Amino acid sequence: MINLLIAMMVFSLTMSISPGPVNMVIVSSGANHGVRRTIPFVSGATIGFTLLLIFVGFWFQQMISAYPSFLMYLELAGSAFIIYVGYKIAMSSPEISLDKRAIPTFSQGFLLQWLNPKAWISCASGVVLFSSPSSHKPLIAFVVIYFLICYLSLAAWAVLGDRVSVLLNTRTRIRAFNMLMGGMLILSAGYLIYLQIRQHLH
Questions:
Q1: Where are the domains of the chain?
Q2: DSSP states of 52-110 as a string?
Q3: Contacting residues for 187 by C-beta, under 8 A, at least 6 apart
Q4: What are the pLDDT digits (tens) for 144-172?
Q5: 177-202 b/e (C-beta count within 10 Å ≥ 16 → b)
């Protein structure tokens, strides 16, 4: 059981801390508005993801079981979208705008997770790995662990955003940061595609 809980924590941390569309919004908001004003968006994104995980785990998973190819297409489409987002971030202009744009809200964070392919992939993959046909206890434990780790991970991105305008004070540093974030996003998507191809071949 301890090994299972550790695996849940590692999976949750890897999927939560890795760059994604939601994380990028949080970094931008942290840079523009600070951590405190970004927390409502972080809270909305965390609760939105947790409810999506519950939905997939207890209801939508039945459809995935009936049509296993659907998950493959979902993961491939989601990975392609993540690669596109990564490319846009990596190639973006080396500038950080500190204009006081509208502060992202709780409801926007909540809804964005339901529109985020990475979130769907995370939920579907996690449910497949950690659910049990004989008991709901492993899935419930996974939901609780993911909620806590997701909240802390997204909050960490807000802190990073709050500090980013101080650290990235030259165009070269901004370009390097954009390339790093975009590259990590593309690598994570490539890894998802690799896992899907390997599973299909076996």
A1: 2-6+22-201
A2: HHHHIIIIIHHHHHH-HHHHHHHHHHHHHHHHHHHHHHHTS-S------PPPP-HHHHH
A3: none
A4: 999 999 999 999 999 988 887 677 667 78
A5: bbeebbebbbebbeebbeebeeeeee
